[in-house]
Write a structure and sequence with these properties.
Elements lengths: L10 H11 L4 H23 L2 H14 L9 H6 L1
C-alpha cells in the first residue's frame, strides 16, 4: 500500500546514510523503524495493564484464532 507522508528534511539524509550503511533502501529502514516503534508501544501498553486486563487480552487473542467454520454440538461440549 502506498502512502504519501511528509518527512522532516533533516531526517532524510540520516535515513539515506543508515540505508547505505545497512546496504538497504530508505523505504526498508523506515519500515523497520516504524515496526520497532509500534512493537515498543504495544509492549509498553501491555506492561501498564492490570492482571485482569492481560487475561482479557489473552482471551480475546485466543478467540480470534478460533476456526469459525468448525461447530461443536452442545452435548459434545458438555460431555468433556
Amino acid at each position: 500500500m502506498r502512502k504519501i507522508i511528509d518527512i522532516d528534511d533533516k531526517i532524510i539524509p540520516k535515513l539515506k546514510l543508515l540505508a547505505a550503511l545497512e546496504d538497504s533502501s530508505v523505504k526498508k529502514v523506515m519500515e523497520n523503524a516504524i515496526a520497532w516503534y509500534v512493537e515498543h508501544k504495544q509492549n509498553q501498553q501491555v506492561q501498564a495493564m492490570s492482571v485482569e486486563q492481560k487475561e482479557d487480552l489473552g482471551l480475546l487473542l485466543l478467540m480470534q484464532q478460533v476456526d469459525m467454520s468448525s461447530m461443536v454440538d452442545e452435548d459434545e461440549l458438555f460431555k468433556q
